[in-house]
Amino acid sequence: MDQLSPAILRAEGKSPLLGQVYGQELLVQALIDSFRKFDPRIQIRNPVMFVVWLGALVTAALIVTPDLFGPSTASRAYNTAVTLILVLTVWFANAAEALAEGRGKAKAAELRRTKTELVARRILPSGEIETVSAAALHKGDIVRVDKLEMIPTDGEVLEGKAYVDESTVTGEAAPVLKEAGTDIFSSVTAATMVVSDWLRIRATADPGESFLDRMIHLVEEARRQKTPNEIALTVLLAILTLIFVIVVAAMAPVATYLDARLNVADLIALLVALIPTTIGALLSAIGIAGIDRTMRFNVLAMSGKAVEAAGDVHTLLLDKTGTITVGNRQATEFIPLRGVRASDLIEAAYLGSSFDTTPEGRTVVAFAQKNGVLPVDAVEGALPFDFAAETRMSGVDLRDGRIVRKGSVEAVVQHATQRFNLAAPADLWDVANRVARRGSTPLAVSVDGRVLGVIALSDVPKPGIRERIARLRDMGIHTVMVTGDNPVTAAAVAEQAGVDEFIAEAKPEEKLRLIRREQGRGRLVAMTGDGTNDAPALAQADVGVAMHSGTAAAKEAANLIDLDSDPTKLIDLIAIGKQMLITRGALTTFSIANDMAKYFAIIPAMFIAALPGLAALNVMNLSSPHSAVLSALIFNALIIPALVPLALRGVRFRPIGAEATFYRNLMVYGLGGLAAPFIGIKAIDLCLSLVV
Question: How far is Cα 624 from Cα 638, in angstroms, rounded to an integer?
Fold first, then answer.
């Protein structure tokens, strides 16, 4: 998976509230939970391991009364050994699931602990301040939070300006400036910390409704739910188990007829070897671990279905701004008109943008500085001309009398004509049109009405986005860029990014129509969004990722919430989903191949006395029938904990296509599953022959 995005690897090192939780405490709790799972009400949810659990009860009864089901040649020691191995098999399966669940439990416990520790300084109508538990706050309450204090509730900044450390929620180390009247930047979240100055905040959530409460709920719910594919595979394993129960039950009269003298413990051992215990033991852990990987990547999954669906996505909708491009348009070129020196244009562009606080103004200043122009002294004492929607210009009136303006070409030309009675240069419109045809936005710059040239503002694709989209294409995913820009700009950006298709001047209805069109063709669709107008499309999409910084409507409609508010993360979530599917497929392949190899150990050992011709199948040359049965059972039990790390970590994902992935799994895990039992069972048999 790291080949698709190094960001996934970087996410492993994050330590927010939803970060990875390791340590002795988790292992101890998982150990305790693994014993609790011996409860038959829990065991019956896993048909394969429930059969092994029942088998252990039967062989345990045979320890007390070896002849419980009739005359038997098996000793109490042999029945005890079989029972212990079967109990260990069930316990290893329980431990695998408990370890996977343990991360979610630890995260939920940490979130709850954080919630209970929060206190608030509530401002009363009289102006007095009282200290209360954060759980006592209601919507509309006013609180004050000073430097190095935790914000007790979700809220809106009413007064003050301070940097807030949101790493406990987003995992990002850089503090965010929060102040009143700035939309997103006036919104604060419970359990984040004020690291400078102070804030007066109005609570926007009642008890139990904060973002922290929703995180706790989502972590716990995600841990319990099974994915559709997991449910289908569980049903298939249950059917296979039932078939093998019938087969083994039918072998008892056949063995009596052949005078093979099979013991009940031998039949149970045969059944355990026949049924797919390996994948049955690890199936739940694989699904839970897949959801956990999204949490370590700082994404909340409403259910395992969302993660699994991400792995099956056929069509990916990508917003241009913030996903394919860096977000705000960037100044990429200064184009002087005839007779104008480039340095004069760059200096004027710098001066005209010095007081422009818009993103475009900041990028012009940065680009001018990159080109070595720093006329800082000229700005001192100057009179700023603020950008406004009516004038569509910004600029500055300098102390030496020069009037510098920067803005749309039409607005600057109108300014030159009306105020200075100067006509636009002959080549201005040719330059502006050339910039517009390649998808950029032209801005004109003038000094005392004389237009010096044009600044090209371009949507700059994010670094590496073309390569990432190419990898998605290798996986068979159709990419569609959706933007509200005009077709010329959209086409230019789409070509640079390498997407398969683009839709320009798109409205919310267009997104919804596109999703339904793709779903009508039998394709699964994924998209990201953050606004209320994105909610219908997010709800319709099979995988909808809402930004944490987005509206409540968007987060309610989506089935995944990105705490980092990074739209490009959807590309990585697809890799996480595919990794979960590939891991399940790989271990299922290994389990089936593993079971086939075990037949060569147990079946000849059981019937070789009655049917000497079966000696040809005893390719492992095991020392005795009892040793063969015990060796196969011990290997069957030990292979489960050996594969737990792979189930929790996941099989490494490579974007090589479904067919190539299938053959790779077949060669690696299929052949590996066949070879491992021959080596393992023979090694255990040799050890047993030395002990007995």
Answer: 21
Cα torsion 678, 684, 690, 691 to 10°: value is -150
Report the pLDDT averaged over residues 150-155: 86
- Within 521-657, where are the H helices? 535-540, 552-557, 569-607, 625-649
What does the domain layout of the chain look like in residue ranges?
138-206, 309-326+462-573, 330-458
pTM, two decimals, is 0.66
pLDDT in tens, 170-220: 555 567 788 776 555 677 888 788 888 889 999 888 877 777 776 676 566
* Helices within 72-187 (DSSP H only): 76-117, 167-170
Q: Which CATH number applies to 330-458?
A: 3.40.1110.10
Q: Of 33, 141, 266, 319, which residue is the catalytic one?
A: 319
- Residue-wise pLDDT for 260-311, tens only, equals 677 788 888 888 888 899 999 988 888 777 777 787 777 877 766 778 888 8
| 3-state DSSP assignment of residue 632 | helix
Q: What is the average per-residue pLDDT within 487-509?
A: 83
Say whether 319 is catalytic. yes
* Cβ atoms 595, 276 nearer than 8 A: yes
pLDDT of residue 418: 92
The pair of three-digit structure tokens given for residue 390, joined into one six-digit string: 């009516």
| The token pair that represents 79 in the structure block | 């029945």
Short-list 190, 184, 183, CA closest to 214: 190
pLDDT band at 538 (very low <50, low <70, confident <90, very high): confident
Residue ranges in 118-227 assigned as alpha helix (H): 167-170, 211-224
Rg, C-alpha atoms of the chain: 34
Residues forming beta bridges with residue 480, ordered by sequence position: 317, 501
User: What dotted CATH number matches 138-206?
Assistant: 2.70.150.10
CATH class assigned to 309-326+462-573: alpha beta
CA atoms within 13 A on the CB side of 456: 19
Output the six-digit token pair for 461.
Answer: 């694709």
What's CA 578's distance to the chain center, in Å? 11
Contact 449, 404 (CB under 8 A): no
Rounded CA separation 507/606 (Å): 71
Which among 336, 323, 338 is positioned nearest to 534, based on CA atoms? 323
Q: Would you say 244 and 603 are in contact if contact means Cβ atoms under 8 Å apart?
A: no
pLDDT surpassing 50 at residue 685: yes
CA distance 371 to 334: 10
